[in-house]
Specification:
The complex is a heterodimer of chains A (472) and B (71). Chain A has 472 residues and is an alpha+beta fold. Chain A contains 17 helices and 12 strands. Chain A is globular and about 60 Å long. In chain B, helix 1 packs antiparallel against helix 2. Classes of the chains: A alpha+beta (472), B mainly alpha (71).
Chain lengths: 472, 71
C-alpha cells in the first residue's frame, strides 16, 4: 500500500523558508551572543581605555542632561551647619532641620514601632532580617581618607613607579575595579567647575581643602587634597533588586548596607592598588564623604540624574550606589551620556506616586529652585524633600525605604529582550514615554513583595549580576 | 508501507513570505520574553507574554492552514 501526503510547498520554497529560519536564528545569535550561548565568562576590552561597549541607545554627549549653572554652584557642606541651615539630613542634620525635640520624639516612636514589629514577627522585620542587616554592616571595613597605607610602594621595592598612557591607566584601573566588585566605572578630570563636586565640609566636620602640597594629608580639623589629585574614579556597586522589592523593611534595606560594605572593600583595595603602583588614592573618610557621588557619576558617563534626584544607570537603573575616589594617576576621562532617562522621568512619575512620604517632586520639569539646605543649588533637578523622606524612615519604616528604587521602570533584571527594546524606545522615541510607562504598569513591573519570600530565593552572590555589562 | 511526499509548486507573493518571517520573529520575541520574564520572577509579564505567544502561534497556524486549503 502506498500513502501519499501532499504539502503545497515547492522544494525551493521549503529550502528558502528553512534558510530564513536558520538565518533568523543566526542573526539573533550574532546580535546577542549571550542569549544563545549563555553569559560570557569574560570579554576582551575593545577600547584602548577599557570603556565598555554600550548599546546604541546610550549616546555619549558633551554636556550632561542635567543643566548646571557653574556660577551659582558652590562646594557643598555635607555636614549640617546650623548657622547656614545647610547640609545633609543624615546624622545631626535631621535634628537640625526638624528641631532636637521633634527629632527625639520621631526616633522614640520609630524605635517603639521597630520593637513591636520584632516582637510580633512582622514580615520583613523579624529577628533573622535584623540579624542579616547586622551581618551586612559587620562585614564593613573601616573608612579611611588616606587608605590603609600598607602596600609596598615601588620605592620600597626598588623599582620606578608604574608609567603608561592615560588610556592604559584607565584600562588597568577598570580591570582592577571590576575584579574588586565594581559594576560600572567612569573617570573624570576635575577642573575649576567640577572641583565644586568635592565637599567643602565632610560629613564628620573636617574642612576639605585643595592644596599645592604634593602629598595628601589630614589633621584633626582638615583634609588636604593635592591639586595633582585631580582624577576622579567613579564606580557603581549594584544592589539586589529582589531585596529592594521588599522595601520598606529591614529585608529591603540590608542590600543597601551590603553595597556600602562592598564600597569600603573597594575603597581600601584601590587605595592599596594605586599605592602599589606609586600613586595616591583618596577615598571616603566616612560614609558618603569626599564628594557628591551622583554628580561625578553623571559627568563620568555612568548615568543621568532623575526624578529621584539620584543617578540612574542605563544598565542597572537606580539600583546602584555610586562611589568615588581621587588620584594623581592620569586617567583617560569619560564623557556624559544621554539615554533619554531624564526625559523619561519628566513623564513617568512612578517613583513620586509610590513614595509613601510624598518626598519626591511631581513637577513636570526640573527646576533651579532647591527644596532646602540639603540640596546643592546651581543645577536644574527634581529636588526632593529630604526631611519628609528621613522622617518616614525614622518614624514609620524604622529603616531605609527604597520603594522609589524598586518601582522605577529602569529597575529590571534585564533578561527579557523587551527591556532592551523599551530602553531603546525611551532613548529614540521620547514621544512614546507615556506609553512605555503605561506598559510598565500593565506588565506588573515594580510590584513589591513580602520580606519572608526573599528568604526562599537563591540569588547570585551579593544579589546582582555584573555580567550585564558584558552582554552589550 | 512506503510513504511518498509530493511537493506541489505554489506561487506566493514575496510579501507573504515577508509576513511569515515577521511572524517568526514575533514568536521568537514573545517566546524569549515569556521565558526570561519567568526567570525574572515577573509573573504578570510572563503570563502576558505566554498568552501573546500562543495567540500568535495558533493564529499563524490557522492562517497557514486556511491559506493552504484555498490553493
Amino acid at each position: 500500500m502506498t500513502e501519499t501526503s501532499k504539502t503545497k510547498l515547492s522544494r525551493r520554497e521549503f529550502l528558502r523558508l528553512a534558510g530564513l529560519g536558520v538565518g533568523a536564528a543566526a542573526a539573533t545569535t550574532a546580535a546577542r551572543p549571550a542569549a544563545a550561548t549563555g553569559k560570557p565568562t569574560a570579554v576582551k576590552f575593545s577600547d584602548p581605555a577599557g570603556r565598555p561597549q554600550r548599546p546604541w541607545w546610550v549616546k555619549t554627549v558633551d554636556v550632561p542632561t542635567t543643566e548646571v549653572d557653574w556660577g551659582k554652584m558652590k562646594r557643598y557642606n555635607e555636614r549640617y551647619l546650623p548657622e547656614e541651615q545647610e547640609g545633609s539630613t543624615r546624622g545631626v542634620g535631621f535634628a537640625g532641620y526638624v528641631g532636637k525635640e521633634k527629632a527625639e520624639a520621631i526616633e522614640a516612636e520609630g524605635a517603639a514601632k521597630m520593637k513591636e514589629r520584632l516582637v510580633n514577627n512582622v514580615d520583613g522585620y523579624t529577628l533573622k532580617d535584623i540579624a542579616l542587616q547586622s551581618g551586612m554592616n559587620g562585614m564593613r571595613l573601616p573608612y579611611s581618607y588616606l587608605g590603609p597605607q600598607k602596600a609596598k610602594t615601588p620605592e620600597d621595592l626598588g623599582v620606578p613607579k608604574w608609567s603608561g598612557t592615560p588610556e592604559e591607566a584607565a584600562k588597568m584601573v577598570r580591570a582592577a575595579l571590576r575584579h574588586m566588585g565594581a559594576a560600572t566605572i567612569g573617570f573624570l578630570e576635575l577642573d575649576e567647575n567640577t572641583k565644586k563636586f568635592v565637599y567643602d565640609v565632610d560629613p564628620d566636620g573636617h574642612i576639605v581643602e585643595f592644596t599645592d602640597d604634593p602629598i595628601a594629608s589630614e589633621t584633626e580639623t582638615h583634609r588636604y587634597i593635592p591639586n595633582s589629585c585631580k582624577y576622579a574614579i567613579v564606580f557603581t556597586v549594584p544592589m539586589s533588586l529582589e531585596a529592594m522589592k521588599r522595601s520598606p523593611t529591614v529585608t529591603g534595606s540590608q542590600t543597601t548596607a551590603l553595597t556600602y560594605t562592598t564600597g569600603t572593600w573597594i575603597n581600601n583595595g584601590m587605595s592599596e592598588f594605586l599605592r602599589g603602583l606609586g600613586y595616591q588614592c583618596l577615598t571616603e573618610s566616612t560614609l558618603n564623604a569626599l564628594a557628591i557621588a551622583p554628580a561625578l557619576g553623571v559627568f563620568a558617563g555612568l548615568g543621568e540624574m532623575s526624578r529621584l534626584n539620584r543617578m540612574i544607570s542605563p544598565e542597572y537603573g537606580p539600583m546602584v550606589r555610586v562611589f568615588k575616589m581621587l588620584t594623581d594617576l592620569p586617567l583617560a576621562p569619560d564623557k556624559p551620556i544621554d539615554a533619554g532617562i531624564m526625559e523619561f522621568c519628566k513623564t513617568c512619575k512612578k517613583c513620586a506616586e509610590a513614595c509613601p512620604s510624598g518626598a519626591l517632586s511631581f513637577e513636570d520639569e526640573p527646576t533651579w529652585e532647591i527644596k532646602g539646605g540639603w540640596n546643592n543649588a546651581g543645577h536644574k533637578a527634581y529636588f526632593e524633600d529630604a526631611v519628609k523622606c528621613r522622617t518616614y524612615w525614622r518614624q514609620e519604616a524604622g529603616t531605609n525605604c527604597g520603594i522609589c528604587f524598586a518601582v522605577c521602570p529602569f529597575s529590571k533584571h534585564d533578561k527579557a529582550w523587551i527591556h532592551t527594546w523599551v530602553k531603546g524606545g525611551i532613548s529614540a522615541l521620547p514621544l512614546l514615554n507615556s506609553m512605555w510607562r503605561s506598559g510598565d504598569d500593565a506588565f506588573g513591573y515594580g510590584e513589591l513583595a513580602t520580606g519572608e519570600s526573599w528568604w526562599d530565593l537563591d540569588e547570585p552572590s551579593f544579589g546582582y549580576d555584573t555580567t550585564l555589562m558584558l552582554q552589550k | 508501507m512506503t510513504e511518498k511526499i509530493k511537493f506541489e509548486i505554489v506561487k506566493r507573493p514575496w510579501y507573504e513570505w515577508a509576513l511569515w518571517v515577521l511572524w517568526f520573529f514575533a514568536l521568537l520575541f514573545f517566546g524569549q520574553n515569556a521565558i526570561a520574564s519567568g526567570a525574572e520572577m515577573e509573573a504578570r509579564a510572563a503570563t502576558t507574554f505566554w498568552i501573546t505567544f500562543f495567540v500568535f502561534a495558533i493564529g499563524g497556524g490557522v492562517i497557514w492552514y486556511l491559506r493552504r486549503s484555498k490553493e
